[in-house]
Design goal:
By secondary structure, the chain is α+β, with helices and mostly antiparallel strands. Helix content is about 30%, strand content about 20%. It contains five helices and eight strands, in the order H-H-E-E-H-H-E-E-E-E-E-H-E. Strand 5 and strand 6 form a beta hairpin. It is globular and about 35 Å long.
């Protein structure tokens, strides 16, 4: 499934050092699904995931936030705050236009210009670089769950 666990471990360590505790937990949870096959309409490890089924499952099971089912609904959720690409933090949702439709694809930003997602039929959950031209051209925006990305300063750990 995964050619080498070393890059994943290194990414996970970077996320832990930069992210809030909840965001770190969310990203670590998402990483546990690397290699799970894509399945249209899929919502679990057993059935496989489509993109929004993946994000919904990770958010619900790692931080208790229930997202809407479809990517466009997630993008338009009143519980999520729009963020600029330059302000992305681990745990943010990133949206792309992959089907000639706004917000037709979603993933979870993990830091260092990378995101994790369930891409398409015949593929599986994986990490991609947002700097690749395919993703750059299709980036639609990002959303943040305020409870997930509260800064460590506001949660009492004193950082920043």
């Amino acid at each position: 499934m995964i050619p080498s666990a070393k890059p994943v471990v290194e990414m996970a360590q970077q996320v832990r050092s930069k992210a809030s505790d909840l965001a770190s937990e969310l990203v670590m949870s998402a990483m546990n699904f690397l290699g799970v096959p894509y399945k249209m309409g899929g919502t679990s490890r057993e059935t496989g995931f489509d993109c929004s089924g993946f994000t919904r499952h990770v958010f619900e099971n790692s931080v208790g936030l229930i997202l809407p089912r479809r990517s466009v609904e997630q993008a338009n959720s009143p519980d999520l705050v729009p963020v600029q690409q330059s302000e992305l933090k681990p745990g943010d949702l990133v949206f792309f236009n992959t089907l000639r439709s706004t917000f037709s694809h979603v993933g979870i930003y993990i830091g260092d210009n990378k995101f994790i997602h369930s891409p398409r039929t015949g593929s599986s959950v994986r990490v991609e670089d947002m700097r690749v031209s395919y993703w750059q051209k299709r980036f639609d925006g990002a959303r943040r769950a305020p409870s997930v990305n509260a800064s460590k300063a506001t949660t009492g750990s004193g950082e920043r």
